[in-house]
Amino acid sequence: MRVLVTGAAGQLGSELVADLARRATGVVHGPPWLIVGLPRAELDVSFRDSVFTAVAGAEPDVIIHPAAWTNVDECEGDADRAFRVNALGTRNVAGAARLVGAHLCYISTDYVFDGRSSRPYNEWDEPNPTSVYGRSKLAGEREAGHEATIVRTAWVCGRNGANMAKTVLGLASRVGTLSFVNDQHGSPTLASDLATKIVDLALARRSGIFHVTNQGSTTWYGFAREVLRLSGHDPERVRPILTKDLYPPRAALRPKWSVLDNAALRLGREELLPPWQDALARLVAELIDG
Q: Could you confirm whether 111 is annotated as catalytic?
């Protein structure tokens, strides 16, 4: 088994490489696995020749492609860069995958929806992104194609990289109240839990769209309160505010409702990720212990 991972130094990419390495260690019989993790410093997916050279050299059976420009607000100010990385970059990876006969797994986002639903979005709901980031990631889905595994996820937090769990823990040590929005709803997702399910789907060459999040939903206000509670701080220090009251205001429009129904997994009677509270408890304990 040969697997190539783009964006391998990122929050999710690093967990994908770690999960693959654990599986490779467990291979007792048969040829050893080859895991090629390429961080952005080694592979900028927006350069077609570089992508084709890297993929042709590795000859992977499977390519997992989480590499993306994910700064939602900066994407609003530079649409060309957003589409160059997230859309054209995926075209490059998909083309290279076809060249060597590799199965492609592309990681997408809840931002492909407009957030106006009154129920969780399933895989068959019509996307309608309202931000440059969301439009560029939806374009990436289309570039990946129908034969690819497309995994949409949301509110990812993990041991590596910047994320909301780390932000809240950093603020917890300060004196005074903390303000978090209470009108954005989503499903917090632990990067390591997500990585395991992505690898399962990718290695099985499961084509189509899958929503993969930890189960349950909350707001960023509820999320921040839970982080404080788990870390031994007073959750009553967190006060709710509305998105429109954020200062400074955010450049990109956030979906107010981006809860994803993991319907393709659920209807297929497949195992779902555990509740977000359980996942967050594991993450906070790990971050505190260092």
A: no
pLDDT tens by residue, 131-167: 999 999 999 999 999 999 999 999 999 999 999 999 9
**173 secondary structure, DSSP code:** T
Residue 46 in domain: yes
The closest alpha carbon to 105, from 66, 149, 44, belongs to 149
Partners of 4 in the beta sheet? 36, 63
Q: What 3 state SS string does 111-139 have?
A: HHCCCCCCCCECCCCCCCCCCHHHHHHHH
Which of 106, 133, 221, 247 is labelled catalytic? Answer: 133
Query: Looking at the domain assignment, is residue 171 inside a domain?
Result: no
Using pLDDT thresholds of 50, 70 and 90, give the confidence band for residue 19. Answer: very high
Residue 158 lies in a domain: yes
- Looking at the 3D structure of the chain, how many domains does it have? 1
Whether 207 maps to a domain, the answer reads yes
CATH of the domain at 206: 3.40.50.720
